[in-house]
Amino acid sequence: MVKTNIDPQKFETFIEINTLINSYYADPRALLQRILESATRLTGAEASSLLLLNPETGNLHFEIALGSKGAEVKQFSLKRGEGIAGWVAEHNRSLIVNDVTQDERFQPQISSSIEFETSAILAVPMRIEDRCVGVLEMVNKTETGQFTEDDRQWLEIFATQAALAIQNAKSFQAVRDQIDILKDQMNGVKGFHTLIAESRVMQEKLELVSRIAETDSSVLILGESGVGKELIAEQIHQRSTRRHGPLVRVNCAALPEPLLESELFGHVKGAFTDADRDRTGRFELADGGTIFLDEIGDLPPALQAKMLRVIQERSFEKVGSSTPKKVNVRILAATNKDIAKAVEQREFRSDLYYRLNVLPLEVPPLRRRREDIPVLAEFFLKRVNQETKKQVQGFTDEAMEILLSYSWPGNVRELENVIERAVVICDRSYVSPAELALERAGGSGSDHQYEDKSLKESVTLFKRHFIRNALERHGWHQTETAKALGIQRTYLSRLIKELEIT
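and the corresponding structure tokens:
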């Protein structure tokens, strides 16, 4: 219990943060930062950390660190039971150590690595339903040099608030995930897909999509297989004035030529064997809306001439008929082929190409927009969780590193398949490299991670992996690692920061 003689400043801060918990649920990190700042100020600590426990690995990660060496501290992690904070996490009990040199639980590696002298530590567990989810740690009492029981009691109150913030954030995220899944399901019912794009290059493409959507000109969408060309076509349609009309899709590579012509333009009764009634084609179905011609590069030469007429005159004739039929339709086309080269080799009509290529739009491959990989992976994981009734929470650091370094020759479609398989076979809380099985799925990250990169990018990636592996071999002890690598420890510390190794 808190003492009867309550410090007014501490109580006022407690009320303030308690109010903020209900307003910062969408930004839990900002709230945790605020809690740690208040706890540090009111306990009179020189530095402080908020560590979160990874339930899968049992490791404690420095989520927020304050003080002169805060940025450097965040590159470390602790095993459960390691150091003062690790002991607190393992035993789920608070601890005051006012002379760390006399306590065998204290491990000085982090302090020595960042050249910070630690004399006293106060650490308390953050609990959700009596389960430790992290640790608040205060370092060095600035005025008296000694942390007190009063400090411990107040820090435990702040730890309770931090745990409440984490719990609220998890609840909010669960609701938001459910909303995202429902939106995705509703999009599926309407025939559309959810487009996930966080990278700058994709945001720029979407800005271009908005401008393109305002016109009625034909668009040629270019890009490798699996990058999401159909999703871009959907976005153009949904942002256009035709959004209330139909979006009709045709895969030009999926049907043989006789069936494709009938599929596109329809036929009249008796046009050929088995034509026992009139058939409405896709162009007619798209009247007033948009037609999306996927794999246009595979359109047979005989149909290319008829397609050119549709674009020029917005009219066509059904198979077996000589009566022109007018349509009001916007044409979006896509291909993963080098269609300009096909024109040079006279495999594709140049006049049709120029008619389609009024507004060209290239969708970059996934390896050129790696910022999208984490959000796409999380999106697919949540969707598969929903479909399979599983509760996989995320990815280990090693698994995410593999996802980020893999070249993804199959792009977003391959990523979706890999995540689906991983979640289905995963029997733990977090997907690990074993479940990803990317070596068997078409090459490991190490085989492909340097493709389509500049020399500078490749060297940086190599250095990051090389140094991270060295740190792991030496238990993340920078002094030992630097000695093994034959470099100064200060230089290693700078490399860790520059290369963003965590």
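(Above: one complete record from the training split.) The two ends are 38 Å apart (CA to CA).
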